[in-house]
Amino acid sequence: MAMKFRAHDTFFIRKGWLSKGMRNVIANQDVFVTKDKDRNPMDVLGIGANMVKALRYWLQAVGLTEERSKGQRVQVLTPLGELIYEHDPYIEELGTLWLLQYQLAKNKNEATAWYFFFNEFNMSEFTREDFVKALQNYIVMSQEQAAIRSLNDDFSCIINTYISRGKISTVRVSPENNIDCPFGELGLIDILSKKSNDTTYKKSIPTADTIDPWVALAVIYDQAGFNTEISLNTLLSSPCNIGKVFNLDSITMIELLHRAERTGVLKIVRTAGLDYIKLEPGYDFFTCIQKYYNEIIQ
Prior knowledge:
The protein starts with 16 loop residues before the first helix and ends with a helix. The protein has three domains: 17-90, Orthogonal Bundle (Arc Repressor Mutant, subunit A), CATH 1.10.10; 126-203, no CATH class; 208-297, Orthogonal Bundle (Arc Repressor Mutant, subunit A), CATH 1.10.10.10. It is mainly alpha-helical and 298 residues long. The chain is built from 14 helices and eight strands. The strands form three sheets. Strands 3-5-4 form a three-stranded antiparallel β-sheet. A three-stranded antiparallel β-sheet has the order 6-8-7. The radius of gyration is 20 Å and the shape is globular. β7 and β8 form a beta hairpin. The longest helix is centred in the middle third of the chain and has 15 residues, at 148-162.
C-alpha cells in the first residue's frame, strides 16, 4: 500500500484556494506544469512556488481534480469537481465542505495522516506526541517508512486545517495574516488545554444539523457498494463511513439518520439482534449530491 506524507509542503488549504484552483484548471489544464514563460504558475495563481505545489496536491487530495498517470501531468476536474464547480464554485456551502472532508479522510494513499487520524486513531484527547507515536506504529505495521519530521509536519497541518490560527498561536495573529482553512467551519478538532510545552487537543463531535441528510446519504451509498442493508455499527465504526470521517458518536449519528429517513430513501430497522438501515435502490454517491444541490437552490 502506498503512503504519502508532507505532500502539502507544510501549507494547509487557504480560503479561496480550491475555488481558484478549479477555475484555473478549467481555463488551462497545464496550469501547474506549463513551461510557457507568459503563463508562469506563480503569476497566474498569485501564490509562491511552494504554495503552487501545495495547491496542486490539495486539489487532488480532496477529490476535485485528477492528473494523468502518463505523459504531461495536466489536471482535469473529477466528476465530483464538475458537480461542485457547477453548483458551488466558491465553496461557500457547508455541505460542500463535508463532501470534501469525506474525500480527504478516506484518501489513504494521498493523505495518509488524515486517513489515519479519522479512521484508525481512536484517542479522543491527544497531544502531538500521542498522534505521532501512533502514526509511526501504524506505518511500521504496514511495512512502510516515513521521516519523523514529515509526521510532525502532517500533525501541524491537520491542526491548522481544523483549528483557527488565532486559537493555536501563543502570539496575537494579525487579521491580514490570519488566513484560516475553510475546514475549520466543520468543528472537528478543538484545544482542550494549553501548557507551556504541550497542548492537548480533542476530537469534537459536530451537531447533526450541520450535516445535510443528502450529504450523509452520499457517503453511506458510496461506502455501501451493492449492499442495501447496513448495520448501524458498520456506519459508526467502519473506516471511511459516516461515523469515522465526520467524528460522530452513536447519539449524533442516530439523530442524523432520523433526519435522513425523512428523505424516504433510508429506513432505520430495529430488530432484537441487529439494528440496521435499509437503502432504497436507484441512488448513488452522485445522485445524492445532485439532490443536495437541488434542494439548497430551491
